[in-house]
Here is the input.
Amino acid sequence: MPDYGAAQWASGASATTSYGDEVGSSWNSSQAIGKPDVPACADDGKAWASLSASTVDTLTATFAKPVRPRSIVVVETYTVGQVSKVVAKGDGRSVTVYTATPAGPQPEGKCPAALRIDVSDKVDFAVDSVAVTVDQTKAQEWNEIDAIGLVG
Here is the structure.
């Protein structure tokens, strides 16, 4: 597995929807907890996936120790490029640190990929959660997220 440089990986996770119904089941939001464990570009139940492949959904990761990060890492393992928004939260505050227009369908071999977002000039508070929104309406294919980490 690549070393994505995260000092801390998510200790908890929830989502607006999950393909897996129960905590610990394949594609449930709980699959985004901890270090990345999907080694290749694949539709893999060890990553989170939303209930539908054509919706906009949000995965929220929580962290055991709030820190002021230098960057946020989102590890995508299937249909990379669907992350449209990332919000850092903590101390009763929140700030949008990333926005993008989602990509269309991707050729094989583009993942796993780490979306690394420099937040050193945007976040001046301790972060205890990160909300990652995926917009799959253009690709019409599941985006899968293996892990979310804080660097710094």
Remarks:
- The longest strand covers residues 56-67.
